[in-house]
Amino acid sequence: MADARRGDPSCSLPGEVPTRALQQIGLRHPRIQQVRRVASGAHQDRRLLLAEGLWAHHVVVGLAAAIEVFLWCPEAAYSAEARALGAQVAARARCSYRIGPAVLNRLCERDRPDGLLSLVRLPAWDADRIEFGADALVLVADAIELPGNLGTLLRTLDACGGDCLVVTNRRTRLNHPMVFRGSRGMNLHVPVIEFAAPADAARWLRDRGFTVVVATVSAGAVPYQQARYGRRTAVVVGNERTGVTQPWLGRAGQAITIPMHGRADSLNVAVSASILMYDIRSRRGAFSGAARAAP
Question: Does residue 295 form part of some domain?
């Protein structure tokens, strides 16, 4: 795809949204095709996500995320807030274009996206550059299938001051719209490291002095209230139906469980992770947050 910045006044314009200066594009334009592929999950670049509307763009601007493409529909901007935010996004975006209401409606899931639509790049985190404090806390998501659950895990990790999310046996994409919404945009902020095999992730954690605990409903697991954690702790939670995979069970320093007093056999994975992560933080008596390396 040609770089639209070359001789194109639609790219990276400062100040107010330059509606007249922006090139208007339609459904056949390569950028629109790119947006549609990202939205459907068919695009090869899994580090691009689609942001729609006021809330999403406030998050993107607030986190200083990298905006690859901004699509502006002035006819759908219903407030001064949307127009002001659009100006900020246009100033930050690598390329900006104008689209009509019909194109906007074809691209968006939301009924009222406020005229704002962007392709945003997820940070690329280097596992060797993440620095951990003495009381570091890591969450491992093993074979999580539902994007909403993955998003909530990221939101929980950020809320309790965790250091990073480790993903193994990945079953859903990090740029899924439900991950973005479920995490409240924290997939643009919380470091995420992916390993092809649990053994590689376990070795990475061990080399950095982490005690690994696995959350499971298996017999013999210790109730979490009785668990003993190391200074640096990694909590592994698993698949919504089958739990953590066998390689993690064989590498855990301790298996812990949340006692169930009703008829259900387990809690939602994100709820379980919240209970365990906050229990660890409360024992340490501090919620001061974690130091994070820049991506």
Answer: no
> Domain check: are 48 and 102 in the same one?
yes
For residue 39, what are the domain limits? 30-121
Q: pLDDT (tens digit, 9 = 90+) per residue, 273-285?
A: 999 999 999 888 7
Name every residue whose Cβ is closer than 8 Å to that of residue 42 and which is 6 or more positions away in sequence. none
| Whether residues 98 and 161 fall in one domain | no
Residue 92 domain-assigned (yes or no): yes
Strand 254-257 and strand 222-223: the pairing is: parallel
End-to-end CA distance of the chain: 26
Asked if residue 232 and residue 102 are part of one domain, the reply reads no
Identify whether the C-beta of residue 8 lies closer than 8 Å to the C-beta of residue 96: no
Whether this prediction's pTM lies above 0.90 is answered by: no
User: Which burial class, exposed, middle or buried, applies to 159 when counting CB atoms under 10 A from its CB (0-12, 13-18, 19+)?
Assistant: middle
Grouping H, G, I as helix, E, B as strand and the rest as coil, residue 122 is coil
Q: Are the C-beta atoms of residues 35 and 120 closer than 8 Å to each other? A: no
